[in-house]
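Journal club prep — side note

Before the paper discussion, L.F. wants everyone to see what a predicted structure for a comparable chain looks like in token form. Sequence:
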Amino acid sequence: MRRGISPIIATVMLILIVTVIAATVGPWMLNLARDTTNQTSTDTDTALRCQNTAYDFDTDYATNGINWTPSQSELKVKITNTGTINVHNFSFEITVNTTIINIYNLTDATQRTSETPLKPGQSAILEADSVSGLVGSTLNSVKVLNEVCPSLYVEQDV
């Protein structure tokens, strides 16, 4: 006659195995749930912010809202916040001579920060910093990007 392990020992071993597995997998599952929740919260905040972010060129300013002086390499644009939240930390992405694309920051004097944002309904003239390498270039288009909603931008052909 063959003898097996007693039911009590089998139960104790089963409980130990389950406890070891739970101790190993539990913290990993908690971290996964926490990270997923945090990422979802961040994505939701960004989506809501972007939904309420809007700005556009003020076409009453210069040419379609863009003042480009190629002899002095001076680029200024005027934008209006048409959304419902404050917008700040702008940059320009410009296309010159139909192929070259550059990203430029704004001068400190015209940059809008989180402390001095472009509020809903307000307009501002933004000036590119250090575009001296573009003297005599033909400007084709300007994109105005922002940090509040990086996926949102406005673009205007010159």
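L.F.'s comment for the group: The chain has a mean pLDDT of 87. Keep this in mind when we get to the figures.
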